[in-house]
């Protein structure tokens, strides 16, 4: 057997996700640009095959762990991204006006918060780069935990991400929200000065998708669509939590503390979205810890070989 129990568990999460995607594609007669997804899918399968080969040959369990986990992570991000778009058009109205009123109770107003960085455009630009680093950070964590041969932490990390994303998508589907970028326009000169990620055109496209849906789902034009709960917050907490016992704890902590204002400014989020992300992370982490108990994967997977029959 070349797969660890947690790797099988992760595959059991991915299988129904793939089936749901397939069923919705057929039921809705949704066009999908598979050519745009093919390189990512192929890369994921190749990387997993490399990991399985290393494990089968007994060469390096660290490379095996990191490679298999990277492939699983890439496949999950593709399947989850497609599912997000398959849920358009939306059946329920967005709850952004309600979230904005909650923000107001705390004195938060997104356009004013963005405008504040107009006085320090360099800082706004740096925050934009930090905001866009979320996914590469997670890939780095997967590779780090794999090569350090920390299977429990690695598989908890993957499951926390999968469960966190599933919870976020489910909450968003029941009570959709896009963030204040669909409610307010940011002046073009301000947006340009800080290289704002979520611009007026972004918000307008989200509103169009909510009504019309997507004529063609493609990896080339994928947008982040979920405001509440903030999945960027979930990812930031994952990066901090799962690198805490490594030598890279300090840089991950610093970058992801800066991620808080980055999410608000460049993600076009309500303040309450971050609180939702914290709650989702707490639930996802607890479930991941239950599915992968401490010490459950210290043994390497058994590799069964045939022995010649005794004469």
Quickly describe the structure.
This protein is mainly alpha-helical. It is 68% helix and 1% strand.
What does the model show?
The protein has a two-stranded parallel ribbon with strand order 1-2. The longest helix is centred in the first third of the chain and has 26 residues, at 61-86. The protein contains 13 helices and 2 strands; from the N terminus they run H-E-H-H-H-H-H-H-H-H-H-E-H-H-H. It has 311 residues and is an all-alpha fold.
Q: Helix and strand layout, with pairings?
A:
Blueprint: H1 5-27, E1 31-32, H2 34-57, H3 61-86, H4 96-105, H5 110-116, H6 121-131, H7 134-147, H8 151-174, H9 188-193, H10 200-212, E2 216-217, H11 231-243, H12 249-266, H13 271-291
Parallel strand pairs: 1-2
Helix pairs in contact: 1-3, 1-8, 2-3, 3-7, 3-8, 6-12, 7-8, 7-11, 8-11, 8-13, 11-12, 11-13
């Amino acid at each position: 057997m070349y797969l660890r129990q947690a790797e099988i568990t992760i595959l059991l999460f991915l299988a129904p996700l793939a089936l749901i995607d397939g069923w919705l594609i057929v039921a809705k007669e949704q066009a999908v640009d598979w050519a745009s997804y093919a390189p990512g899918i192929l890369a994921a399968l190749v990387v997993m095959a490399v990991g399985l080969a290393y494990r089968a040959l007994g060469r390096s369990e660290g490379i095996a762990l990191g490679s298999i986990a990277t492939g699983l992570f890439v496949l999950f991000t593709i399947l989850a991204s497609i599912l997000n778009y398959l849920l358009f058009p939306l059946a329920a109205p967005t709850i952004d006006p309600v979230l904005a009123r909650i923000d107001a109770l705390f004195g938060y107003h997104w356009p004013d918060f963005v405008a504040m960085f107009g006085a320090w455009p360099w800082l706004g630009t740096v925050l934009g780069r930090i905001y866009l680093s979320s996914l590469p950070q997670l890939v780095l964590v997967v590779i780090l935990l794999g090569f350090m041969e920390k299977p429990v932490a690695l598989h908890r990390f993957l499951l926390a991400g999968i469960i966190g994303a599933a919870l976020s998508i489910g909450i968003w589907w029941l009570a959709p929200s896009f963030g204040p970028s669909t409610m307010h326009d940011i002046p073009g000169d301000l947006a340009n000065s800080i290289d704002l990620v979520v611009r007026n055109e972004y918000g307008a496209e989200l509103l169009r998708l909510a009504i019309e849906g997507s004529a063609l789902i493609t990896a080339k034009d994928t947008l982040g669509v979920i405001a509440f709960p903030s999945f960027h917050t979930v990812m930031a907490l994952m990066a901090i939590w799962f690198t805490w016992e490594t030598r890279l704890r300090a840089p991950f902590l610093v970058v992801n503390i800066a991620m808080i204002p980055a999410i608000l400014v460049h993600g076009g989020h309500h303040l309450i979205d971050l609180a939702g992300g914290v709650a989702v992370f707490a639930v996802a982490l607890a479930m991941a810890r239950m599915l992968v108990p401490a010490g459950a994967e210290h043994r390497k997977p058994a590799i069964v070989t045939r022995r010649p029959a005794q004469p």
